[in-house]
Amino acid sequence: MLLTIAVVALLSIPAPGPTQIDTAIATLIKDLPGLFGWFWEIGYDLLIVWALVLIGIALFAHRRKLLLRDLVCSGTLAFALSLLVGRLSGTDWSRSFDAMTASHGPAVYMAVRLCVATAVIVTASPHMTHALRFVGRGVLLVGAISVIALGVAYAVGVVAGFVVGVGAAAFVHLIVGSPGGRLTLDQIKAALAEIGIEASDLRNAPFEPSGVALATGSAPDGRPLLVKVYGRDAWEGQLLSSTWAALWRRGSRPQLGSGGRLQLVEHEAFITLLAERAGVPVMPIVGAGMADEGDALLVSEVTGRSYDALDPEEIDDALLRGIWEAVGRLHELGVAHGQLDGSRVVVRPDGTPALADLGQARVAATRVPLMSDRAQILVTMALKVGDRRAIEATAAAIGNDGLAEILPFLQPAVFDRPTLRAVKEQDWSLGDLSERAAVVAGIEPPKLERIRRVTARSFLLAAAIALFAYWLIASLAGIDINDVVDELKSADKIWLWAALLFTPTAQLAQAFSTIGASREAVRYGPVLMLQYAIQFIQLAVPSSAARVALEIRFFQRMGIEVGAATSIGLIDGVSGFVVQIAMILVITLSGLASLSLPSATSSSSSSSSSSSSGSSPSLWMLLVALLVIGLILGLAIPRYRKLIKEAVPRYRAMIRDQASEAAVALRVLRDPKKLAMLFGGNFVGQVILAIVLGLCLKAFGYSASLAQLILVNTIVSLFAGFMPVPGGMGVAEAGFTAGLQAIGVPSAAAMSTAIAFRLVSFYIPPLWGVFAMRWLRRHEYV
Predict the structure, then answer these.
(1) What is the DSSP annotation of 327-395?
(2) How far, in Å, CA of 506 to CA of 687, rounded?
(3) Least packed by Cβ within 10 Å: which of 318, 432, 489, 577?
(4) Distance between CA 729 and CA 731 in Å, rounded?
(5) What is the rounded distance in angstroms from the CA atom of residue 40 to the CA atom of residue 25?
(6) Which residues on adjacent β-strands are paired with residue 203?
(7) Residue 355 — φ and ψ, nearest 5°?
(8) Which pLDDT score is estimated for 318?
(9) Strands across the sheet with 345-347, in order?
(10) Which tens digits make up the pLDDT trace of 297-324?
(11) How is residue 762 annotated by DSSP?
(12) According to the model, what pLDDT value does residue 695 have?
């Protein structure tokens, strides 16, 4: 799906066409000797006929109803996506819809019928014989050429239709699976024989959330065996689930790379053998290998019962102590398990514990994954024997100091969903467990900095400032408000919707910058929620203060010390400032764009010529005036004056008190990968916002080069960031108005664009920022 999105995005650049290549291909096909219109019409009709034949087979064939569901889902998804892609590329909904049945021009961007037929044929392909698959490919090839020959779509639309259809089919296969994805028991037995392992009494085990197919069986000597099979769908499921976990849960990593199935098996076998050699009690590996059909298998001995299957009265102190000893030996190797819940701890017949399923383990582990392992074990014990007994057993095994080290990691980010659901069913929470453990360890629970909530008063104050700012801008720039209202009414709503939908992607890039500022491994998903939450909280306090404060609280929740958490926010903010300065210098010195001061007599449109013919102040005079007014507002309002007065000494004292931790955090600047994420994320975020500004400008019938848009957005963002006003309200609008005028946009259109841009990039995003903030609070990230 990601590849589909990337290809469609590239194809949308020349869309809707026709390009010179489209014209040349269409001419070549029409000039092919010996072929007439009827041939192309038949080829085009075969697309829908063959798709209907496949759906009919699934409808009337015995035990093929699930296939019918898959075909209908993929076809419907492909049709919807083709309409959406066509609309985003400038084709009306009605024209794209008609293209499904049309057999002649005028040509549209998306080959809708080809897209739907591709999705159905590719979805059905794993269920068909080789001969039928060959027929389907032939139908798609002839149909694609026919689409161009009949003038239904251009060549670029044919490629886009095929790619979207394949993507829709792949998505359905990924969600529901396919026949080639999970082996039958006979196939598993044959695959085991190929790698030299004999097994009997094979039975399917429940399909694990990680996406690995499991089967149980018996060795010739009666030993129980567990067989892990990484087949096509099983590996894809592993990739999907591990990538999702890597985004949202600490201690998880995406399973990527070519030959991934075999690599996963080799990794787990290596870690297990390494641990066994060091004396760590693990489940012995019986064998591993790759079958002829490309399925990777790992076979281990499973003697005993899982910790989850035990009754509380069966768990004595010796068992709890043995579990901590096993984990301690594993950690002495520098190996973190990564997923230590009750199903990964096996109690053998002699009553001793062993660790199983080391597929997510990592070597040379840092403090975060090691402490996460310990937190997982503490919670796993508490779920069975109660929080008090688990805390006492932990303190007895690793000491009070060791128990204290775990406390910052008793947070939802460390645990998977089943564990969190199990905790919710208890009469204690993770917070209760942390407080009780702190009492036993003899320390105070970690205290986190409070974050100001947005109140009704702050919203009213923001509205008052915004209204005053708009009046001030109009007065200083000599703009008639009626002209602005007319411009807003005449705006092209499609471009404004496109700007609004594209705006959240800026946070996708900025999240990488925040991750790059941290030495410790943090998950992308929660950091992305943090970026959206910042958009919400910055309505109440100046944006830089909101960003730093919220990030400090967030990273403290991730188990990072106060000094390091403070430094992360500051490093992220300073890197953004450096990127902005660099972008301004590069664009200005290279001559890619410049800002020309608007003259008093310049007129840009009939609607604004009369209003702009007066004495308009220069750009720099306007910005200086706004700077002075902003400072006056900041000093006049007691709350903001207090924030300004206290901010610098407070952060200076925090960094001084945590100097050693801050120095460690600054080591991130020595890591090229972290630097690339830090500066690259900020750079891409600025470019995306400039594109959004261009979309808003397009809504009012004007355009500008990307360099001009970047220059205007960067200068204004940098300028507004210094203002002691929440989000630069009023100042930013004035800056964008003046900046757009400086690149030749009429005054009324410039102010309308500034208002629209601020709406989609600042005033509306807090709506989804509210949900992000709630998510962070619900999952105890802030």
Answers:
(1) HHHHHHTT-B-S--SGGGEEE-TTS-EEE---TT-BSS--HHHHHHHHHHHHHHHHHHH-HHHHHHHHH
(2) 8
(3) 489
(4) 5
(5) 15
(6) 216
(7) -95, 135
(8) 93
(9) 305-306, 345-347, 353-355
(10) 889 988 888 898 899 999 999 999 999 9
(11) I
(12) 92
The DSSP string of 293-324 is TS-EEEEEE--SEEGGGS-GGG--HHHHHHHH
Q: Residue 745's closest CA among 614, 625, 631, 605?
A: 605
622 SS3 class: helix
Q: 721-753 pLDDT, tens per residue?
A: 655 555 566 667 777 888 888 888 888 888 889
pLDDT at 616: 40
Structural element, H or E, at residue 262: helix 260-277
Here the tokens at position 394 are 């932990």
Q: Which amino acid is at 461?
A: L
- Asked if the model's pLDDT at residue 631 lies above 80, the reply is no
CATH for 313-441, options being 2.40.50, 1.10.510, 3.40.1000, 3.30.70: 1.10.510
Q: What integer pLDDT is reported at residue 534 of this predicted model? A: 84
Q: Which of 85-94, 404-413, 688-697, 716-725 has the lowest mean pLDDT?
A: 716-725
Handedness of CA 395, 400, 406, 410 (dihedral sign): positive
Helix (H) or strand (E) run with residue 215 in it = strand 213-218
Q: Judge contact between 483 and 609, C-beta under 8 A.
A: no
Band (pLDDT 50/70/90 cuts) for residue 10 is: low
Report the DSSP beta bridge partners of residue 299. Answer: 227, 287
- The residues, ordered by sequence, that sit 6+ positions from 180 with a Cβ below 8 Å of its Cβ are 126, 231, 232, 233
Radius of gyration of the chain (CA): 31
Mean pLDDT of 75-79: 89
Q: How far is CA 675 from CA 62, 510, 572, 628, 715, in A?
A: 59, 13, 11, 36, 23
Q: What is the pTM of this model?
A: 0.52
Domain residue ranges of the chain, discontinuous segments joined by +: 2-176, 185-301, 313-441, 473-597+678-778
CB-based contacts of 466: which residues, under 8 Å, 6+ apart? 729, 730, 733
pLDDT number for residue 490: 81
3-state secondary structure of 288: strand
**Torsion angles phi and psi, residue 341, rounded to 5:** -110, -175
Task: Give the CA angle between residues 70, 72, 74 to the nearest 5°.
Answer: 65
Give, in degrees to the nearest 5, the angle at Cα 504 between 500 and 505. Answer: 115
Count of residues making up the chain: 782
Say what angle helices 456-477 and 619-636 make with each other, to 10 degrees. Answer: 150
Contacts of 20 (CB under 8 A, 6+ apart): none
Q: Is the pLDDT of residue 456 over 60?
A: no
Rounded-to-integer distance, Cα 175 and Cα 309, Å? 30
Fold classification of 185-301 is: Phosphorylase Kinase; domain 1 (3.30.200)
Alpha-carbon distance of 334 to 674, in angstroms, equals 23
* Long-range contacts, 209-215 (Cβ 8 Å, 24+): 209/241, 209/418, 210/237, 210/238, 210/241, 210/242, 210/359, 211/235, 211/236, 211/237, 211/238, 211/239, 211/240, 211/241, 211/242, 212/237, 212/238, 212/359, 213/182, 213/183, 215/185, 215/188
> Tell me: the pLDDT tens digits for 697-724?
999 989 888 888 998 988 888 776 655 5
pLDDT at 335 over 90: yes
Q: State the Cα–Cα distance between residues 301 and 346, nearest whole angstrom.
A: 11
